[in-house]
From TrEMBL:
Belongs to the D-isomer specific 2-hydroxyacid dehydrogenase family. Residues 8-292 form the D-isomer specific 2-hydroxyacid dehydrogenase catalytic domain. InterPro entries: D-isomer_2_OHA_DH_cat_dom, D-isomer_DH_CS1, D-isomer_DH_NAD-bd, NAD(P)-bd_dom_sf. It holds the Pfam family 2-Hacid_dh. The keyword Cell inner membrane does not apply. This is D-3-phosphoglycerate dehydrogenase. Residues 111-285 form the D-isomer specific 2-hydroxyacid dehydrogenase NAD-binding domain. The keyword Lyase does not apply.
Length: 294
């Protein structure tokens, strides 16, 4: 069944190439960024299609007002900012681009892992402040360490492949993946990941089963000093529990690109971000020129 579209609203910034491609196919494209929920509700009745990234929240109220809407396109992987159940009830198709940012998200993950291992962020900041603290920021080699990969989809597999090249042992959990199906990855149960991993990186969608997956109970099952990396979705890591674990030395450090609140404003979340053992970036997983076009 084909869907006839005429007018498209783009509510989060995408590469100009994408805009021109839509116009080339005869669509009327309107770009209006940073709309509030009320503004979006007033605007959406005029459009057949809506294109978003992660900032726009397509809630049930928005969909109820979208009397002409046929398609919501998510320029990216995760669709947790879209009420997919409400969309289905209203006959609105939700599409995403799961492969578009795989390499970019993977490469950022690998950069964060290596930065945690070698205290790159702290060392850089110290030098900028006029100090020469070589011994203070002594790190560790990744070769011989164990990386736990939670979620073995496109991004998780790319990360596993690259970090195996560093000499890391890779253990992975994914309920949809069978043992022996991925080169250089030992597929194990979730409970088998916690006690053996020196680093744990998350590459799952945010769904009820993964919300607060990395919580107090599971952190206490980990090796003392485990390092946590999240370039997937805010909400998968219980940030309050992570802060406590970092303070208590249960967790040796964390690298976070995504947060339960974006941009972060709550005092507890800001305390986590500002902790000296935490490396934080502002949701840069898909922020490359290549991923923006893909």
């Amino acid at each position: 069944m084909s869907i006839q579209l005429k007018k498209v609203l783009i509510s989060d910034a995408v590469d100009e190439t994408c805009v021109q491609l839509l116009r080339k196919h005869g669509l009327q494209v309107v770009c209006k960024y940073k709309l509030s929920q009320d503004e979006l509700i007033k605007e959406i009745p005029h459009y057949d299609a809506l294109i978003v990234r992660s900032d726009t929240k397509v809630r049930a109220e928005v969909l109820a007002a979208a009397t002409k809407l046929r398609v919501v396109g998510r320029a990216g992987t995760g669709v947790d900012n879209i009420d997919t159940e409400a969309a289905t009830r209203r006959g609105v198709v939700v599409l995403n681009t799961p492969g578009g940012n795989s390499i970019s998200a993977c490469e950022l993950t690998c950069a964060l892992i290596t930065s945690l291992a070698r205290n790159v962020s702290q060392g850089s900041q110290s030098l900028k402040e006029g100090r020469w603290d070589r011994k203070l920021y002594t790190g560790e080699e990744l070769s011989g360490k164990t990386l736990g990969v939670l979620g073995l989809g496109r991004i998780g597999r790319e990360v596993a492949s690259r970090m195996a090249a560093f000499g890391m042992k890779i253990v992975g959990f994914d309920p949809m993946v069978t043992a022996g199906s991925i080169p250089n990855v030992e597929v194990v149960s979730l409970d088998e990941v916690w006690p053996v991993a020196d680093y744990i990186t998350v590459h799952t969608p945010l769904i009820p089963q993964t919300r607060n997956l990395i919580n107090e109970a599971n952190l206490n099952k980990c090796k003392k000093g485990v390092k946590i990396i999240n370039v997937a979705r805010g909400g998968i890591v219980d940030e309050k529990a992570l802060l406590a674990a970092v303070k208590e030395g249960v967790c040796g450090g964390a690298a976070l690109d995504v947060f339960s609140e974006e941009p972060p404003k709550s005092p507890g979340l800001l305390e986590l971000i500002r902790h000296p053992k935490v490396l934080a970036t502002p949701h840069l997983g898909a922020s490359t020129a290549e991923a923006q076009v893909s």
